[in-house]
Structures
1.
Amino acid sequence: MLSLYRRHRPKTFDEVVGQEHIVRTLRNAIELDKVHHAYLFVGSRGTGKTSMAKLLACALNASGGPRADFDPDDPACRAILAGTSLDVVEMDAASNNSVDDIRELRENVALAPMQGGRRIYILDEAHMLSTAAWNAFLKTLEEPPPHVVFVLATTEAHKVPATIVDRCHRFDFQRPSLEQIAGVLRRVAEGEGIHLPDPAVGMLSRAATGSFRDALGTLEQLVTYGGKQVKLEDVRDILGVADAELVLAAAEALVGRDPRAALLTVQRLSDLGRDVTQFMRDLSAHLRHLFVVQTLGEVPDSFSVTAEHTDRLAQQAERLSQGEILRAIDFLAVAIAAVKDGSEPRIQLEMALLKATQPQADLSLQALMFRIEQLEARFGGSAEQAPETSALAPSRAMSSPQRAGPGPSAAVAVDVEEEVAPQAVGSLELDQILTVWPAVADAVCEENQMIGAALAAARPVGLEGSRLTVAFPTDASFVKKKAEGNRELVQRALRGLTGQSLTVAYELRDDAAPDGPALLGEQELIERLRAEFAAEEIFDEEGS
């Protein structure tokens, strides 16, 4: 028995839903006898590309000659719609993509039609043909026999060679709207005697994501599962609404920065036996939805299965900053890549969620930028004073998780300096300076590696008004002198990372060395520069 989708394919051009521009053009071409020898049908799956190709074949092979208003009960048309016509050849390029397959096709195109006036070749998933197969097909496509029409259907037009596209008339199939899918579902349900509640229609329409075939396939699955009296509980089970709840729960843990809730969500996922890697992809897609909602200011209909999910999406988008969203997406991308390399999926998911919910436990530059954002919000004035800072500064640093070290720090410093007006220094505290000091040193390293390395081994020790005191160890007078000669470089980096203008003063102190590697003494530093950079020591002449 044929599937619902195949039984309820449109039988005339009038029954086509959502592709009026294509129907009109093909009708005119048939009536004016201007049918092209090759067409390229482009569109996502389930939008009706193959159905349209068969309708074109029916119109060209109708009894009495080509006609756009053909009778679907015409024997020739019935055979075409049923897939039994000898004049319509359907090929799946995914499994018939070799040169030998195309050579066989080239030999057969010379055969005259058996019953109608044209032979129609429908090549589905055309982008799957190999390069050699395309080359073998090119001449035939360019100059086919007059009785042959080719229809190439693809979901990925960018993979079809330009030489092929140039020889076809291209039609782009639009994704149907929720209303159009709902209309088809109601019509099919009525024709099949299926009781389908309106809430179920809405849920099926959303879940289909623009595919008539997926919508009708899910409806058929529901009928097989629970009979022709469709229940909402069955719809929720079939559509995996429980999985959507887990995704929403994980996002809620991110919103609340609640590591315990995040780990409990992973445990529930494991108890249900769900695929962890797929869950990470689903969560990434959900976070991307939140980002889109923030940009558009509303929730697109296709983003959620139920109206309740729509409300929760909107609430989460309001409470999660763009910086946090991008950080979480980056962590999940790294986790998915690690799983591909053989790592344990559950461990990777837990680590990604823990990093996203506990930025203070993450020592990466991305986490540092997030903490700066939080400090700005708490101490540097209200969000209204610098609305773009919290979103833009972290996002630039987070867009490429593999980037680490001094490079991103300098980029962040420049970006923030250009967009953030200096604020009153009274809101800045020494602890905040200490937090960002490693990033200051990295930013300076971009322009002067020696000064940047020196700053990494120095320590801010005092902040009075706009004056910041930075201490070097007592045996580091040489690098202190160099830092004093590059004071503006350091002040510019500080302004970029804090949004405030500070005057930097240096001093030597016994307790200045921070935790970590000791700062090189003057002679040691000179020897290191000689060894690594072939440097030469130049002495100032007296009186110069």
2.
Amino acid sequence: KLNLKGTNKNMEKLKKINKKYLHIAIIIIGVIFLFLSSFHEDIWFDESYSVAIAKHNFIDIWQITGHDVHPPLYYWMLHIVWMIFGNNVIAFRLFSVLAIVLLGILGYTHIRKDFGDKAGILFSYLVYFLPVMCTYSQEIRMYSWSCLLITLLAIYAYRLYKKIKNKEEKNVNRNIILFGILSILSCYIHYYALVSAGLINFVLLIYIIKNRKNVPHILRNFLILAFVQIILYVPWLIYLKGQVSHVESGFWIYLGMSTLVEVPSFQFRRQLDTNFSFDLNTIIALVSALAMYIYIGLKMYKAKKEKSEMLPGVLAWILYVAVIASVLVVSLVMKQSILFARYLLVITGLYIFGIAFFMAKEKKNWLIILICSIILILGCISNITNIQINYDSSNMKQIEYLRENIKQDDIIIYSNIGNGGVIAAFFPENKQYFYNGEYWDVEEAYKAYGPGMETIYNYEDVLKDYHGRIWLIDSEGCGLYDEIPKDGVKTIVEPTEFVTRYQNYIYTIVLLEKE
């Protein structure tokens, strides 16, 4: 009997070691998987804004982004990267990937510890191999870092809940402080993160009020924390009010058929294309996502009798849906949609945890293997497509062309800020002008591209006293070239078109010279 008990213990230890090494292997392979398509300089308009604003100091970033539609924290973080690596697009991109690398590692350091080996392994696996992750992990935007912060915030909220439930006083205040720091950082990085943090704080506060006798002073300390968070967020409220007014007056997001498809299928899509099409990839993503919703729904239904055991997974998915519902309500109040699938990456850590938690409870191993296999296949297809697109030789031709031919005193004019912003990010030393012919209210926000770029409403004032070479950057066609008067102006290089595979941008470049 003693030998049998000893053998059983050794087998358990061996299983633990095997799971540990399997988990580490998944993290290593997953990190390599993410990095495969990340070493490229291609950027599109949204990324160009991040690259351009990164060179400004902290105060200017605060003021400039106050006229945009996002909080400033991510741009501050990117400025620190700029201070270390300079205007390096690849460094900026890898900084975004780093957040998802850390998110996957949470499966080993936090999820495994709190919810078991199986949940931790599945969490890391899903973080690295869900189709959307290898695309949006490398966007030079705030999404990946927002996702990491909200996931950490939810983890520490759950740890506080456990301490209160179990009447544990040890390290409660340290946990509250960590929770508070993550909460205010979330509020300053993205507005979906602000909504998420608000909901998490509210739910936790209700629970603390109901169970305040379990841990002495917990309610008082949490209320102090809430007050500190409010005080720290007050300085941004002035800008938030202006941003809301700006969005209410007209915004580029709209609620349509594409939204109804992209929102539920977001995590299974490689890319959210500007020109939505209901093609095979869309159908596969939607069917896969709906199948996952059905699976989780069935698991939640069957778990009714074991509420306490299933509570973490249920709460994660309730919070995920609650954030989307809150955004929809705000959209209805504002009469302007702010529901956009790409922003869901902010709360995708909750979505992933919910799946990992319920799959870890699955007793049918073949079903777990099937789900993981489908996700791996879709993830590989997604990343292979990314590699083909991101490293396509067409993507940097327009930049290489300008680098070879542009001179220090040349000026650049463009009327399409989409491709113009990309040019501004790569050539900040050349004086540039965005011809805002449609009079968009963007002048303050586009100071991100300054001081090299200015927003103008009449190009004649620029050209009147200027003598020298002028680069015109059009998108498709030669609208700006045809519009500018040719008196005293000669064409040095006829319109040359460049089409990039990355985001399908079109650049029509013309070189003029004014005597």
